[in-house]
Amino acid sequence: MQDLNEQVVKCSKPPAWLNRAGYWFRIGLTIFIGLAMLLGTAACSASSETTFSQLSWEKASGIAPPETLIEIVQSHGSILEPKEAIATMRVQQVTGKKGQLNLYDFNNSKLCGKMGCLYVGYLIPNDKNQVQREVFTAYLNPNIAPKTALFEVERGAQGDVELPCLLVNQLVKKSQRRLKFCYNGLVYQLT
């Protein structure tokens, strides 16, 4: 009977290498959790310092040259007559260190569907040797809650940003959703 107890005791001790592996795993896990909490706290505190301000729509024909507007209409809708589309087209302007961002609302039911209506953004660079280029394209639902702007622009962002992030308010199944788009150096992408 005593030999059986000795065998049970001998079998229940794990090998030394397994004890060391468990020890280092616990230390690594503790460090990882500590860093994750530290980074999570820093990310939350940085985002609370940024605010978003509403943009206002203006007639696009009063802001951009007619040839620019014709080019934009033709590149996004062959079903639209350029002069007719320009008459209802609206724009919001956002200024950044990289240049001026013009957000265009075609304000035309022919460019709307199940996914929403087409909105595009063109970057007009500060460097006059560069040409304007499209940096934002999205189908968005223009029907949002009263006194809520479709687009808001980030102000007071940390760091040296070329163009500020955009906050887009959308209604999804009777609840408001806020989508954040940020400029990655080439285009605006959902973050």
Please work out how many helical segments DSSP would assign: 4
Strand element count: 11
Secondary structure category: alpha+beta
* Sheet having the most strands: 6 strands, antiparallel
Oligomeric description of these chains? single chain
Percentage of residues in strands: 25-35%
Mean pLDDT over the residues: 82
Helical percent range?
A: 25-40%
Separation, N- and C-terminal Cα atoms: 67 Å
Radius of gyration: 28 Å
Dominant shape: elongated
Question: What is the succession of H and E elements?
Answer: HHEEHHEEEEEEEEE
Low-confidence stretches: 43-48
Account of the 3D structure:
This protein has 191 residues and is α+β, with helices and mostly antiparallel strands. Strands 2, 3, 4, 5, 6 and 7 form a six-stranded antiparallel sheet that branches. A hairpin with a 2-residue loop joins strand 5 and strand 6. The longest helix is centred in the first third of the chain and has 33 residues. The radius of gyration is 28 Å and the shape is elongated. About 3% of the residues have low confidence.
Secondary-structure topology with pairs:
Layout: H1 2-12, H2 16-48, E1 51-54, E2 58-59, H3 66-76, H4 82-88, E3 90-95, E4 99-105, E5 112-113, E6 116-125, E7 133-140, E8 151-155, E9 166-172, E10 175-183, E11 188-190
Helix pairs in contact: 3-4
